[in-house]
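Researcher: Next entry in the queue.
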Amino acid sequence: MSLTLLIDSRARTVAPMDSPRALLARTDPDVHEALLGEERRQRRGLELIPSENYTYPEVLAVLGSVFTNKYAEGYPGRRYYGGQEFTDAIEDLARTRACALFRCEHANVQPLSGSPMNQAVYLGLLEPGDAILAMDLSHGGHLTHGAPVSHMGRLFRFVRYRTHPDDRGRIDVDEVRRLAHATRPKLVLCGYTSYPRDLDYAAFKAIADEVGAITMADVSHVGGLIAAGVMTNPFDAGFDVVTTTTHKSLRGPRGAMVLCRTRLADAIDRSVFPGLQGGPHMHVIAGIAVTLRKAMEPAFREYGARVLRNAQALAAELLARGCVLVTGGTDNHMIVLDTVASAGIDGRAAERLLDRVGITTNKQVIPDDPNPPLRPSGIRLGTPAPTTRGMGEDDMRRLGAWIAESLARRDDAGALAAIRTRVEQLCERFPVPGIAAPGNRAQA
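Model: Structure for this entry, 444 residues:
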């Protein structure tokens, strides 16, 4: 039999391909059950972790696509492997859209996540031992902003500026200027992971110019809100580098971007590859391209505005019910609740308590927290995910009431069960994008 006839004969005997879900259920039921369980948890509960969101169904489509199969070391037009026609196309789309959306001159979309994103900037623009001026970690700075347990904290000398939580989280610009002149940092870093206010980027830029420092803003939490035009863009203040993850307020895949001025582009690109990473994850870059196209639409600007309105409504309800909020409120998507001052329990206990009623939060240190990081004095709350589901300000007020009641009646099993029922009833009204309810098709 000829090879052609053999192949044709075998092709006719192959059964039709199962759907990926059906195939997974048959070949690995343990993973399939975990997947179904996570979908059920997300459908029936409220995600309030401010760094989490629900991505677009279109992003899920490309994340599970053939782009997963492709190695693409290098950059468009300069790869180390063949067969790059379509990988080049999607990476060029992502870079062009990022530059247009954030009004920047260059974009690198290959960082795998937030940590290597920031590492690439430090390692590409600085020398080991250089000073970096950044926010104090307990006042809202991120692990990658020089935590002693991180490698970057050992390679570079981080100098800390602090906030004034009792004065709406104000940052004393004069104190930042004094620190900058005393320590002569090579990099002035703005950014946060648990600071519920906006930043005066122009003031930081002026201080950096006085000492000849590069300016960098890590806007991972508020990248989507900047893209939507509802929060300040550091590039408008003349910043040199802006970094952001793509899965928080942007609603994209779990990736990251380094945005910069043209004069820094070569150094940044060399630092990402080959300096820090190998082959990029092209399925994620495809998802970033889709996400940035979505963020250019008018509906996304309205989404960003609704995220802020929902955060204001949630904060106001919590304050009205006697809860203590770090900085006294919020200017962005995030709320930091002092659970010790509000209810006499630490953040770990509050996180576990709210898990019981179907409200997912995360424990969080507060400024100058006397408690350890795994048993801190607060929790973080955020509104991007419930806003994505379509919830509004009235729903946030209900949610604030349920959180306050859960904290106050934490030993009342009947009360907690009733709150859990109300949470699930609310969630039934607002489907999760991309997750099908039992017997239905996935929501767009």
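Model: Residues 72 and 82 are 8 Å apart (CA to CA).
Researcher: Noted, moving on.
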